[in-house]
Amino acid sequence: MMKKAIFFFLLVLRSFSVLSNGGPIEGSYVQQSGAIKLINNEKIRVLKEDLEVKILGDDCLVKVRYLFKNEGQKEKVEYGFPVDYLPPDGYYIPNLNYVSGFKYLFKDEKLKYRIVEEDSIESQVYRAYGNGKGIVSRKWFITTLDFEKEGTQELKVEYRIKTNYSNYPAGLNYFSFFSDRLFLYDIAPCGFWGDGVIDEFSFKLKVPDFLCVDNIELQGVDGVIYDENLIHVDCQNFNPKGRKLSVKYDISKHKRRLDTDNYLPNNIVTKVSVSSQLQGNYKKEYLLDRDKNTAWVEGVSGGGIDEWIEFEFKENVIITGVGVLNGYAKNKSTYENNGKLKSVNVFLNERHFYESDHDHSYIFPNSCYKVIDENSIYSDIDLIYTDYDPGLQYDNDELFEVAEHTRKVKIIIKDIYKGAKYDDTCISEVFFYGYHKESNQ
Known about the structure:
Layout: E1 4-8, E2 11-12, E3 26-28, E4 44-55, E5 59-70, E6 75-85, E7 99-106, E8 109-111, E9 114-125, E10 132-147, E11 152-162, E12 165-168, E13 177-178, E14 181-186, E15 198-206, E16 217-219, E17 225-226, E18 230-238, E19 244-249, H1 252-255, H2 257-260, E20 269-274, E21 296-297, E22 308-313, E23 317-326, H3 332-337, E24 340-348, E25 351-352, E26 362-363, E27 382-386, H4 396-402, E28 408-417, E29 426-436
Parallel strand pairs: 1-6, 2-6, 4-15
Antiparallel strand pairs: 3-12, 4-5, 5-11, 6-10, 7-8, 7-11, 9-10, 12-13, 14-19, 15-18, 16-19, 17-18, 20-22, 21-29, 22-28, 23-27, 23-29, 24-25, 24-26, 24-28
C-alpha cells in the first residue's frame, strides 16, 4: 500500500487597520510558527536546499530549490503552504494579499494546488513589539508531489511575501514611524526528510542598493559571508532541526523621505555658531547649503568630542524635528576616510530636550556609504530629534500663541565613528522641521 506523508512549512501573515484615533493604519504581521505537524519519511531525503531571499522593501521574494532522492518505492507526498491571518472583528480588516506569485515547480512542471481554509486556530504570533498567543484563520495551499521509485527529483517553490512590520503615519508627531522589517523562515521541516541532514545547504540574501548589509540582523545560520549587496553561506551535512531563519532590517529612512523632504527654509536661521572649524574649505555655512558635496568639519585634535554647533532662529519659529546628513557625503572615499557622528546631545532653548532611557543621547547607526542622489539626500537623513506636533491641535494663529517658540538648537558631539584615514568628524547637512509664521502674516 502506498504511504502518504504530509510536509509543510509555515508562514503566518497578519494585517490590520484601525480607526484614525492614534492607532496604526497599515501593517503586516507575517509570522513563522513552531506549531508544525511533521511526519518523518526516512526513504526520501534532501540532497540539496538552495534558499534565496531578495529584499524588496516591505516584501521579500523567496526562491527555494530542493533536490530530493527517493531511496524507496514510488510515493505520493502532500505538501502544503499555509497563510494565517487575523480574522475581522469590527476593528481589524484582514488583507489577504500577503503572498503573491506563489507557484510550485516539480520536475520542471508547474503544479496545481488546492486551497483549504481553517478558522479559530491558536498560534504563536510574532509582533514588532512583542510576541504571544493569538487566534488566527488559516488558508492552506496544498499540492501533491509524485516521487518516482529510487529517483532524484527537483522541487522549486517561489513566492513574494510581506514582512512583519508596523507603520504609523505622521500624526501627533510630525514624522511617520516605521518599525523594522522582519522576515521569518523555518528551516527545521527539512529535518523530517531522510536522516534529517541536508547534504548541501546554501542561503543567499540579496540586499537592495538603499540598504547596507552591515546593518542587517541575521539569525539562524552560521558562518555567513558579507559582500556589498549579498549575504551568503554554503554548508555541507547541514542539520536544520531547530533552526529558524530571521532577517531584520530598517528601511525607515527610505520610507520617510516624503517627511524629511518637507523641511523648513534656511532663512529661518539667523545665526550659526560652532565651537571650532577645520582650516580650509569646511565652513559652518556648509551645514545649511543643501549640498552633499560640502561639509562642516570640527577643528580640534582628535575626534571632536564635546565640540558643538548652534543655530539661532527668527521669531515665530517652532521646531518639531532636527535632521542630520551624517559624515562627509561627497563620495565613498570622503565618507569612509573621515569621522562620523556616533552619538549627540540635542538642546532646544538651552534645555537638554532629547533624552533616551539609558545614555541621554541619539545614537547614529554605523551606516555604510550608499550613492546619494543630489535630489534625494532626504532618504539618508537621521532624525536626531522629533517632538510631539502641536500644529494639529490649533489653527495657525492659536498655535503661535500657545506653543513655545524655538530660539536656539544646539548639537553636542558625544561620540564618533573614526574615519579610516582622518580623525576629523564631519557633518554634511542639518535640516529643521516644524512651523514658521512670517511677521507680516
